[in-house]
User: Which sequence fits this backbone?
């Protein structure tokens, strides 16, 4: 269930009703793209969640407490600097688009706007000054990503480019009639065509609300006009009737700002607050949907992998059946050697007595006319040895494939009862230890594509941070030159051979917690010749200050601007 413009309008109305004029008592950033503002109003605290996550961007009041990192990220510190102690003067929706402006009066009298853009992967949270200058954003966007609209400190804030659609809150009845007549010339379009027209013609009309209006009008354009005007009149007046939507088992599957004809009436449960239904959905239904999607994806990959293994095993067993005739090559070679007088020079075949046949029949043997009798016999012996060797190797491969197939079948059975996403990753690791890839790096054809192109690089997570460790010289070079980004942190034991260690920073090296840096330094120390020392100096710097030594051996690098940690392995 996506946050569309009607839901956002309902949220704006509720925020103005419940927390307008409230004081900002706390600001936290529990995850890289989620902000929680604590607003003090009416004698109580209200948690305002704002998320710029691509798959679930949203803004609503929340009662869910979220753990916060020990070290606040940079954007969190920026908001604390400007907004802490300030007052929320009001919330405005921009042109019925998926953009909210939260207007604040800072404690020092400065007026600021927190812009919340709910736009899928382009969602963002941006702090803007009274003069329209960007002070910071949770997702900075440089010129290389968007030439029209840079979202960087000091730049002038620009709204997303207009879509040249009509604002449904401002359309007049006669204008709507004219638009309908031009589009359908008085005809009665089907619901699908009507929904498509609504979505393409008006700002903020999501596929959901387009289908809803089409269903309510049953293809009658006159009725559509009445339903359209009534709906958006209610939106203008702030007349919402939020519902939480459940399936036949009573599980939450969605929510909306008013009851919908797209769900059975008995599955829609009215609530007084749009924020309440949003909070219920995003903290119960969404995690369950994400789990179900992840589990189904994992099961599908396992089934494809299992079917691929079965086909491979069947093919190898067919080849083994062919190899069972390899003994005949040896017999023919011996028949040639025992009857050399019957082999004519440059003959392509010969009639030989088959001593291995109980009846002593005569057989026709194919020959290479370029070879003499002894050489033709050796050619048959070579075929025998090759087939014998191939059969042994193939038997080992069949046993290995059957063992892996058995493991996949066991994991498949376990995966069907998964209740947590963490369990999927645990099962992935079990398979990965046997070299069976079931992650997103798998190619479309079903063949596993090794992560890091097969280089030996260990991946470790510490909290929300990813640490990579090169396990040999070639892997260190690959990690340095192909994987690490300029603002990732790079670590190496001072003046001693060691693994290259990289902390992926998402372009925010200043936000890496000290405990994560220490954990990475310990990994560098443990993968070094100094691992038995009582105290190991580990240098760290940004990747952009590291370069491979020209002509040096694999893994040899030079660096500057380093700092040093002292680690006891």
Assistant:
């Amino acid at each position: 269930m996506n946050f569309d413009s009607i839901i956002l309008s309902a949220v704006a109305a509720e925020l103005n009703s419940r927390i307008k004029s409230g004081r900002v008592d706390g600001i936290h950033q529990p995850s890289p793209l989620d902000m929680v503002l604590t607003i003090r109003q009416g004698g109580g605290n209200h948690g305002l969640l704002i998320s710029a996550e691509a798959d679930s961007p949203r803004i609503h009041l929340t009662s869910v407490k979220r753990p916060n990192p020990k070290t606040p990220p940079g954007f969190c510190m920026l908001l604390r600097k400007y907004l802490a102690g300030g007052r929320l003067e009001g919330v405005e929706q921009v042109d019925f688009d998926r953009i909210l402006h939260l207007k604040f009066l800072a404690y020092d009298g400065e007026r600021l706007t927190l812009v919340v853009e709910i736009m899928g992967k382009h969602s963002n949270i941006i702090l803007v000054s009274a003069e329209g200058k960007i002070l910071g954003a949770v997702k900075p966007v440089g010129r290389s990503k968007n030439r029209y609209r840079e979202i960087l400190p000091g730049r002038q804030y620009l709204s997303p480019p207009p879509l040249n659609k009509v604002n449904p809150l401002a359309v007049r009845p006669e204008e709507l009639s004219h638009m309908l007549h031009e589009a359908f010339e008085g005809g009665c379009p089907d619901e699908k065509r009507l929904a498509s027209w609504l979505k393409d013609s008006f700002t903020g009309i999501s596929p959901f609300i387009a289908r809803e209006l089409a269903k309510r009008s049953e293809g009658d354009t006159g009725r559509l006009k009445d339903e359209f005007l009534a709906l958006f009149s209610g939106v203008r007046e702030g007349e919402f009737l939020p519902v939480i939507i459940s399936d036949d088992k009573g599980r939450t599957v969605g929510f909306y700002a008013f009851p919908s004809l797209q769900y059975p009436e008995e599955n829609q449960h009215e609530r007084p607050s749009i924020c309440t239904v949003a909070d219920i959905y995003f903290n119960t239904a969404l995690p369950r949907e994400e789990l179900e999607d992840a589990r189904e994806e994992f099961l599908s990959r396992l089934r494809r992998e299992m079917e691929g293994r079965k086909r491979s095993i069947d093919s190898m067993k067919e080849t083994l059946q062919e190899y069972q005739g390899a003994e005949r090559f040896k017999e023919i070679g011996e028949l040639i050697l025992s009857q050399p007088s019957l082999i004519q020079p440059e003959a392509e075949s010969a009639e030989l007595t088959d001593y291995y046949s109980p009846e002593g029949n005569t057989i026709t043997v194919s020959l290479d006319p370029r070879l003499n009798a002894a050489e033709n016999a050796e050619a048959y012996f070579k075929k025998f040895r090759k087939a014998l060797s191939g059969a042994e190797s193939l038997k080992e491969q069949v046993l290995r494939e059957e063992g892996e197939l058995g493991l996949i079948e066991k994991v498949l059975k376990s995966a069907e009862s998964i209740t947590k996403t963490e369990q999927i990753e645990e099962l992935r690791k079990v398979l990965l230890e046997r070299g069976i890839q079931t992650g997103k790096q798998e190619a479309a054809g079903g063949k596993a594509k090794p992560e890091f192109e097969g280089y030996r690089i260990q991946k470790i997570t510490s909290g929300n941070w990813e640490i990579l460790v090169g396990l040999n010289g070639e892997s260190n070079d690959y990690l340095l030159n192909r994987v690490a980004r300029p603002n990732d942190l790079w670590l190496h034991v001072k003046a001693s051979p060691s693994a290259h260690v990289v902390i992926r920073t998402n372009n925010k090296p200043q936000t890496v917690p000290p405990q994560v840096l220490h954990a990475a330094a310990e990994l560098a120390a443990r993968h070094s010749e100094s691992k038995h020392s009582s105290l190991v100096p580990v240098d760290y710097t940004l990747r952009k200050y590291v370069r491979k030594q020209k002509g040096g051996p694999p893994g040899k690098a030079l660096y500057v601007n380093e700092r040093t940690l002292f680690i006891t392995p």
